[in-house]
Amino acid sequence: MELLSTPHSIEINNITCDSFRISWAMDVGDLDRVTHYFIDLNKKENKNSNKFKHRDVPTKLVAKAVALPMTVRGHWFLSPRTEYSVAVQTAVKQSDGEYLVSGWSETVEFCTGDYAKEHLAQLQEKAELIAGRMLRFSVFYRNHTKEYFQHVRMNCGNVMKPYLKDNSGSHGSPTSGMLHGIFFSCTTEFNTGQPPQDSPYGRYRFQVPAQRLFGPNTNLYFADFYCMYTAYHYVILVLAPKGSPGDHFCRERLPQLDISCNKFLTCSVEDGELIYRHAQDVILEIIYTEPVDLSLGVLGEISGHQLMSLSTADAKKDPSCKTCNISVGR
């Protein structure tokens, strides 16, 4: 049988967190003969080629020949925000079950995308299932070291400035390494109604009345749901003043929540007064997208311990947890 031409001119497009479309060129005479495509897909960090030594053994991914471009989809082998290399080989399955194969194409590299809004909506639905009842609160607070707050006062004009979010949480979160903000907490102890006295981030706490950061002129977005190989689950929310750069960023990428009616964090008017509530059974991490002046609140030292084991700085999500994972790239 006549040899097959080597595929060339690979093109990759329509890339998502767990799929991509691929096409290539081959001789016209091969179009009616080719029965299968072999696709060799490798994470970029592994530069060692995974070509099989025996040409009659299929590669990692085998597909029956279809019209190009074709979609490659699979959360079990594609992860978000990950660089891959891909090469293709065409084949004709012969009557004896053996394959006549072409040479390998050139290798092309690409990077998968972030979670889309529909993926985050799935995470949101899973988080809502365990959020629990809503508890009242009155302040947002930020724990840090004494040195941090001294730096803010002496070098930043008494203003805490937004910084780039780290890579903690879901690997596919569109906020990681992209959104600037300041982390706050609002969790209270159910028996006291007050913020806990322990913290993983430092013994100094800045407290600001909730209405200073959250109100009718603020938009609220769901950003992530994850755990760190523990029973605790975290929900990341974003508070962005309407029309701000952070608001524009989130509107394009994150599901927006009704500030007065959702399962995580609410601001509602009751008897002419703004009332604030947070979910009891998840730990909320609030990203506020604008600078915050220390004069808006009070700074003090907490009496509890610094529980470093609860820190979520650059924390990696447990990919095996059935509570907080969805069936797309982790």
TrEMBL record:
Residues 111-330 form the Phytanoyl-CoA hydroxylase-interacting protein-like C-terminal domain. Belongs to the PHYHIP family. Keywords: Glycoprotein. Interacts with PHYH and ADGRB1. The keyword Glycoprotein applies. Pfam families: PHYHIP_C. The gene is PHYHIP. This is Phytanoyl-CoA hydroxylase-interacting protein.
